[in-house]
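Think of the structure tokens as a kind of shorthand, similar to the way a musician reads notation: each symbol stands for something richer, in this case the local conformation of the backbone. In the example below we present two proteins back to back. Begin with the first one, reading the sequence and then the tokens, and try to describe in your own words what changes along the chain.
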Amino acid sequence: MPDTAPAPTPVPGPTPSPGPRFCTACGRPLAQDAACPCLASIATSAAEPGLSPQQRPLRLALRLYFALLGVSAMATILYIAAGGPDAPPRQETAIDIAASALFALITLAACIPGRALLRPALSRAGHPAFYPLAVITAGGTYMLASSFTGFFSRAFDLESESYTTAYVEAGYPGWVPLVMIAVFPGVFEELAFRGLIGSSMRSVLESREALIVTALLFAILHLSPVSIPHLFIIGLALGLLRSFSGSLYPGMLMHFTHNALVVLSEYYPESFP
């Protein structure tokens, strides 16, 4: 018989591990069977009986949203009580400044228990390519918003809304409306919506659903039916920037640039279409 050795018995290799897991709230990569620290932190800082770790950040987000909606509603009521479009410029700007300051304070207060949700998006800058993309996108959303508002103004014979006239008539220097209309919303609306609210929605919804719901809430907050269509689209664009970049900073830049273009278009209308 031929002198042959028996074939070696194959040694089973290690069982391949499943792909990486990610936190549905903040997007942080997780080890298998590990809980995300952001949910644990929320559970500790905002513990309420009867709520799961996924529901607790959602409760925080809803409280934040309705507090901000209350600020927006109160500012609208005060503006109407002051005379609406005929309100004295000093009174109109005082309402706007007070509402913006209260919006910022409420958002910062919510950032304390929600800091674990914000930390991943604030600790990374994202790829540098997202920053010029944010500026280009802001130019597109500005033109879209101008087209929408122009269409509705002509279709329903509405007076064009001005964001800077009251500041100019009240004697404020040009940098004040830029800060109030572009800087404050660019920072604090992004912290609130693409930060706390969007991350909380992703803890209970699929990413696409969370994106749509957050954009819709963002549009409704402004309490301007004419503006809801283009605000919803802007909210989608900001949410996509947040998702793909993993950072809040490109969205802040886009939001600031869009609003700054609105301010500049009112100061220099001959330079804008």
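Once you have a description of the first chain, move to the second and do the same.
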Amino acid sequence: MPTIRDVAAEAGVSVSTVSLVLNSPDRVREPTRRKVLAAVEALGFVPKAEAVARARRGVGRVGVLAPYTSYPSAARRLAGVLEAVAHRPVEVVVFDQESAARTPSPLLASLPVTGRLDGIIIVSRPLEVAPRLPTALVDVRHPGLDSVYTDDAFGGRLAAEHLLRRGHRRFGFLGEAQESDRYVSPAQKRLAGYRTALAGAALDVRLTGDALTGARALLTGADRPTAVFASDDTLAAGVVRAAHELGLSVPADVSVVGFDDGPLAEALGLTTVRQPLEESGRTGMELLLQRLERPGAAAREVTLGLELIMRGSG
């Protein structure tokens, strides 16, 4: 069996560099990572500890990669993943990818060759290249991979149609600032649906990194919108707070609609578009387990529904 020293010699690097690539790929420059991974694959190297782990019987190991530190919705999807395997012999390993805009992922490149995982669930993170191990996607799609998602543009239309029925004519949108043009974010899709449904009505769009600052800018001025759709409930909460600070009443002076529907929306009485976050995690895990049982089956795409939840904010 090839050793880590053989891999280091093949790649022309130190043993410690090989170890970093396999265990902390983010700390190694991409050209070096590529050389090491190519050597690992060419030699068929399996780390000793991992070889022992692969000898276990009756237990599968699944990774879940998501931007947990950036989006509360990702944690709720993980709850659904864990619920799906609560009574099954499956270990779940969680990887935090802070930014969805960071592509490609060094971690995704190293996991298949180390043999650490039987499969992986990727949450709310666009892919440029499909991983080389069984994969299920949640809140994102890629050709040839199993996926579960919602129609964000439809969610934007739901919000717009509700506000139009309430008689509004001046509209606002508050969304998270786009970090990269390499992918279309959920906020962009929600805005597209919102804009389409409004069909030429007055629309002020603000993309911001800070909910309160963006909301204040949106609600300041004589022609301020009387209705605001925010791309998630945290941003919607910023709109409600900014309105109160500016002496505006919600919903008498400005109606506010969010997106997600969780404890925050319930506590604030937000009207919001509910997406089935926990259900998406459960479905993603089910898709992956089925993929592990039937590797050659055709890829499946599952679309989950959205629902407008009416509360006191508009």
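Compare your description with these statements about the second chain. Residues 277-293 form the longest helix (17 residues).
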